[in-house]
């Protein structure tokens, strides 16, 4: 488990490209038959990736979280961005298809991951996990792709028409802190969020997926009056502090997993910034 310490907006002006990527970009989460994780001190969120190919992978405890088992004091949302797979939680198996989501509540002890057909068209399952501290236990719940709360947002005239699937949220699957869903851009649309916004009460993390190998997303971050950008590849994640905007435009169509944790779970609790006010 890699540690990422929290940062302040005052640090942004002095960061070069290498430091921006070192602090906020999370590459290489998916490795064959292992679980890789990053602990960010922004709201103490853990991002993890699991790609089971030749064996079933057990979620480790990780000594950095100082718990007897991973979910002793935590909860998580898990989205499969690869081929079909199975997550087993304390002996109960859940078939998690592409872009489907499993919420795992506090208290789950044994969690394992496996792929249905690693050599199939979509390849092995690739499970993306976002975890936050939890104060109580909610039941483990599966939400299949397209069956959550669906919101159609944006406009093709501004290149940001998109379908947003809310899975874990205040009016959907219950959780303590985690809010999670998947957004897919419509053909011809490339902006995932515009106008950009912040929400000082929650951090957010993006995982871009479904992006062709030769394509990239230009992700904008920083304070609205002091923005920077990073060039992001398929299945790379972004840590977005609560004070930072988070918006991107791709060179090809793509989807992304968005996840938040912090003060509240209100999806619409955000402060928008027209592009004319950004620098």
From TrEMBL:
Its EC number is 5.3.1.17. The keyword tRNA-binding does not apply. It comes from the Bacteria. Binds 1 zinc ion per subunit. Pathway: Glycan metabolism; pectin degradation; 2-dehydro-3-deoxy-D-gluconate from pectin: step 4/5. Transmembrane segments: none annotated. Its cofactor is Zn(2+). It is an enzyme of class 5 (isomerase). Zn(2+) binds at residues 197, 199, 204, 246. GO terms for molecular function: 4-deoxy-L-threo-5-hexosulose-uronate ketol-isomerase activity; zinc ion binding. Keywords: Isomerase, Metal-binding, Zinc. Catalyzes the isomerization of 5-dehydro-4-deoxy-D-glucuronate to 3-deoxy-D-glycero-2,5-hexodiulosonate. Belongs to the KduI family. This is 4-deoxy-L-threo-5-hexosulose-uronate ketol-isomerase.
């Amino acid at each position: 488990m890699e540690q990422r310490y929290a940062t302040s907006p005052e640090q942004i002006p002095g960061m070069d490209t290498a430091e921006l990527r070192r602090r906020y970009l999370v590459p290489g989460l998916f490795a064959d038959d292992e679980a890789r994780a990053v602990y960010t001190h922004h709201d103490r969120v853990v991002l993890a990736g699991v790609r089971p190919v030749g064996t079933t992978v057990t979620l480790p405890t990780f000594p950095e979280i100082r718990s007897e088992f991973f979910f002793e004091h935590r909860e998580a949302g898990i989205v499969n961005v690869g081929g079909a797979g199975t997550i087993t939680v304390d002996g109960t198996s859940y078939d998690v298809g592409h872009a489907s989501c499993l919420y795992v509540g506090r208290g789950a002890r044994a969690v394992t991951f496996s792929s249905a057909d690693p050599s199939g068209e979509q390849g092995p399952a690739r499970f993306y996990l976002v975890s936050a501290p939890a104060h109580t236990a909610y039941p483990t719940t599966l939400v299949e792709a397209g069956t959550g709360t669906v919101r159609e947002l944006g406009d093709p005239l501004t290149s940001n028409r998109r379908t947003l699937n809310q899975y874990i949220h205040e009016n959907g699957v219950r959780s303590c802190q985690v809010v999670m869903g998947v957004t897919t851009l419509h053909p011809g649309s490339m902006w995932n969020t515009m106008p950009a916004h912040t929400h000082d009460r929650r951090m957010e993390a993006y995982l871009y997926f479904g992006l062709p190998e030769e394509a990239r997303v230009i992700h904008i971050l920083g304070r609205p009056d002091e923005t920077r950008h990073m060039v992001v590849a398929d299945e790379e994640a972004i840590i977005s502090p609560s004070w930072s905007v988070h918006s991107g435009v791709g060179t090809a169509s793509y989807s992304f997993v968005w996840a938040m944790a912090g003060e509240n779970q209100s999806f619409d609790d955000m402060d928008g910034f027209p592009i004319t006010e950004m620098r």
